[in-house]
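Q: Could you fold this chain for me?
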Amino acid sequence: MQKLTNKEEEIMHILWKLEKAFVKDVLAEIKNDKPHYNTLSTIIRNLEEKGYVSYHAFGKTHQYFPIITKEAYKKKFMTTAIDNYFNSSYKNVVSFFAKEEKISVDELKEIIAIIEQKK
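A: Sure. Below is the predicted structure, expressed as structure tokens.
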């Protein structure tokens, strides 16, 4: 699975949300820094080449849909980030967020409860 650029990732989030869409539908969902229609079309074709999307042809127009699930992408992205930035340690991830005060004691207790339920 190839890494996506920030713009490609933004487009994928839109396609995951819409499930299937024409370029004009994707363009309508972009809030800031709307690219030109042709630029967006090129980005989507790049996503197709990378194996993230496919399409149904309707004459000269294409309706695109994701073939990589959001869950599969999230798993790959998170695994890579944890490997690269936290020495493959989930403990280091949780410690980082605790030190940054991005996770509360109550949230940590919820995580522990989830882990204990799995046993």
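A (continued): The mean pLDDT is 93.
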